[in-house]
Amino acid sequence: MGRGYPLPAPHPQVPPTAPTLLYLPPNFPHSG
Predict the structure, then answer these.
(1) DSSP label at 3?
(2) Cα separation of 19 and 9, whole Å?
């Protein structure tokens, strides 16, 4: 994390209560 790209809307699979910051779709590579 640290790129600062706009996070897309959470998918129906993820509840709206889940933190969007910690939610990353498989489309984005996990780069620390």
Answers:
(1) S
(2) 11
| Residue 8: closest CA among 21, 30, 31 | 21
Helix, strand, or coil (residue 12) = coil
The Cα–Cα gap between 13 and 19 comes to: 13
pTM for this structure? 0.13
Instruction: Show the tokens assigned to 8.
Output: 């897309």
Instruction: Report which of 31, 28, 30, 26 is spatially closest to residue 14, judged by C-alpha positions.
Output: 26
1-32 residue pLDDT tens: 566 667 676 556 655 665 555 556 666 665 54
